[in-house]
Design goal:
single chain; 312 residues; three-stranded mixed sheet; 11 helices; 3% strand; globular
Length: 312
């Protein structure tokens, strides 16, 4: 698609701060965070791939795909943020901005869908344990992951199909750390009221409705367990606590940005950093690295590696 009316070739990102000392500090923090995001999530994918027990367990198959989405979402935004800490003039090309928004909503929408699938997985595991492996079979799992990708693609295309044709001919300053739909829309040289409503309906309401559905599903699980066995409630609570934490950390900032715009650029920046850096950083810790089965798999892999070195 061509943008014949556009005269803006790049956007200027104001970033987090103008202080050189703070930029050095943020560089160190974000560089370490991104390194840990890649290491933690890649470790989960590696363990699930190499360990036959984890690979055959539906929950860990879904967790590995969640890690893939987390790494991808962070890679869309964080490396550019890290590089910009050393640049006095933080710019991004027009098509670079469009690509960043497209990929961010692709992986974000896919991750939202996958979290719903994971909630269904936990419901079946806790409420229908005898039928768990039958219901959550390989065909269902692969289909659910493919569905997540499809939903993410439809979600981002439904917005970006209109964004790429907008004319940009005036201000080109974005008061944020990366390109995001609400702020870029405000820079278009045309009336974007309908598109702003589309973004609220698409991104805002989608995230809000998904968040409510997830909380309802977790409530149903807890009520079901409580009616069956009061002693099993504490175990269910500990299992679901990680899921509820991740869901809140991901959906909270997204809902505030898209469903109820706060109008504060400082808070918008904080929320943007939160769901693009903090959540992918915490997901491996909350979901898997503290998990006993994941720890056992690491020990098995290490023992296997030591034994193979001993043989040779």
């Amino acid at each position: 698609m061509e943008m014949n009316n556009s005269v803006v070739n790049e956007f200027i990102l104001l970033g987090l701060t103008n202080s050189w000392e703070l930029e050095i500090f943020f560089f160190v923090v974000f560089f370490l965070a991104y390194t840990l995001i890649l290491a933690g999530n890649f470790l989960i994918i590696l363990m699930v791939t190499l360990d036959s027990h984890l690979h055959s367990t539906p929950m860990y198959f879904l967790l590995a795909n969640l890690s893939l989405f987390d790494m991808s979402l962070s890679t869309v935004t964080v490396p550019k943020m890290i590089i910009d800490f050393f640049r006095e003039r933080k710019t991004i090309s027009l098509w670079g901005c469009m690509t960043q928004m497209f990929l961010a909503h692709l992986f974000g929408g896919s991750e939202m869908t996958l979290l719903i699938v994971m909630a269904v997985d936990r419901y079946v595991a806790i409420c229908k344990p005898l039928h768990y492996t039958t219901i959550m079979n390989r065909r269902i799992l692969v289909g659910s992951v493919l569905l997540s990708w499809i939903v993410g693609f439809v979600h981002t295309m439904s917005q970006m199909a209109f964004m790429v044709n907008l004319p940009f001919c005036g201000p080109n300053v974005i008061d944020d750390v990366f390109c995001d739909l609400p702020l870029v829309l405000k820079l278009a040289c045309t009336d974007t009221y309908i598109l702003e409503m589309l973004v609220i309906a698409d991104s805002g309401l989608l995230s809000l409705i998904s968040f409510i559905l997830l909380l309802v599903s977790y409530t149903i699980i807890l009520v079901t367990v409580w009616h069956r066995s009061a002693s099993g409630l504490s175990k269910a609570l500990s299992t679901l606590a990680a899921h509820i934490t991740v869901v809140t950390l991901l959906f909270g900032p997204v809902i505030l940005i898209y469903a109820w715009p706060v109008g504060s650029y400082t808070l918008d920046k904080f929320l943007s950093v939160f769901y693009s850096v903090i959540t992918p950083f915490l997901n491996p810790i909350i979901y898997s690295l503290r998990n006993q089965e994941m720890k056992a798999a690491m020990i098995r892999l290490r023992s296997r590696h030591i034994n193979s070195k001993t043989i040779f």
